[in-house]
Amino acid sequence: MFVILVYDANEKRVQKFHKICKKYLTWVQNSVFEGEITEANLRILKDELKNVMKEDEDSVLIYKFRTKKYYSRESIGIEKDSSEDFIY
Known about the structure:
The protein is an alpha+beta fold. The chain is built from two helices and four strands; from the N terminus they run E-H-E-E-H-E.
């Protein structure tokens, strides 16, 4: 399946969220990831995020598509280089 994942995390946990998401998906913009993922890996990703998040401060939205066929993305302005890493 193809997913878009968006998170809003307290700044203390942003780098942890980023590091977890980057293991499974492609970083496309601040706090936004997308990519093909299996059901099993999506469950693992969600479990890892739940382990670091505080539910009263952080949130995660996951948009699921059965296939990338019905997905289109338009970008206006500068595009993030998906190979760019945060400095930890």
